[in-house]
Amino acid sequence: MSIDGIAALVFIVILAVFLFLKRKQVQLQKALFPVLYVMLYRSSFGLRAMEYAKNSRLVKLFGDISIIAGFLGMILISAELIWETAKVFLGQGIPSIQPVLPIEAKGVFFVPFLYWILSIFALALVHEFSHGIVARAYNVPVKSSGFAFLCLLVPIVPAAFVEPDEKVVQKRPYRQQLGIFAAGSISNLLFALVIFGLFGILSPILTSAFDQTGVELISVTENDPAFAGGLRQGDIIQSINNIPVISPQNITQLLSNMSPGDTAQVATANNSLNITVGAHPENNSTAYLGIQAKIHFIPNEQFVASYGSLVPLVLKWFAGFIYWLFMLNIGIGLFNLLPIGPLDGGRMFQLVCFKIFKNKLTALKIWTYVSGFFILLILANMFTGFIK
After folding, report:
1. pLDDT of 308-354, one tens digit each?
2. Domain ranges in the chain?
3. For the chain, how are helix, strand and coil distributed in percent, rounded to 5?
4. 222-289, what's its fold?
């Protein structure tokens, strides 16, 4: 079993034991119990820190900026989802939304377990804490905070939550409510910008610590040309048609000079393959292999001699962690801005409907139809990903 697999089992066992010991403080929300359910562990974690935001002008300004950024993000992600779904059904694209899980399966966006669990935990804390501090800035009581666990027979997916007093929230002006709802997603996007800056600091260190030796395949789409030609996940491509490959961009450039049906001579670290390239799903005239790749690094010998062999391993792991932390904060932050039901974007859109349409029933109908439309788009993408 892999390290990730062992870590996942250990995590599930620890989580199950913790929830059993704290069972008197845990609330059960049943969906398809005992197969699917949610467990809420309430606490006062972070509530004292949120009090510092009470009536804070700076936090209120953040709330106002979040409203503008939130609606811009909603328009962006909604338009992108509609466009990408249309391309899927026209046979010109691939599903744009997939479940983000530490499971290697068709239709799943795979993230290694340790990266996944730490990233989900960090982004959930940032997201929920931001809701809480903006609520306190508008003098809305936060009743509790805590951790939630989505359970599929056993606890699997952790999350965090804060509980502003909903009765008080609903009595606040629309502007304040919008600020509270938008703050979580926008804080995730801002967190992603901070992480991007960290990349800039880390980049020179990584450059000196590692040498590039080709590209590593992180996924090979089954039945696509690369898979049919013998390439598999984990293979290291070193050259194509005798031209050295040191980055994924090199592969894109080389394919741009080829046509569907051409033969590519692909040299890996262990083999040499002749692969007939196919047509790209989005453009039939463009050559296509059906792979996702990342730069492959090996530790620099001089760096190892100076700092030891452990330091490059730690740097490599940390670089992978901040990469996934960046990606998931961007992806989940934007996803939460979709105008769907209980999501942040859904609650924002509902308030807009109430503001525009004086008839509350009409507003609710429009909100329900729009929410249902985007839910169907998501389900269509996920279903297509599982069967395509």
Report:
1. 999 999 999 999 999 999 999 999 999 999 999 889 999 999 999 99
2. 3-203+327-342, 222-289
3. 55, 25, 20
4. Pdz3 Domain (2.30.42)
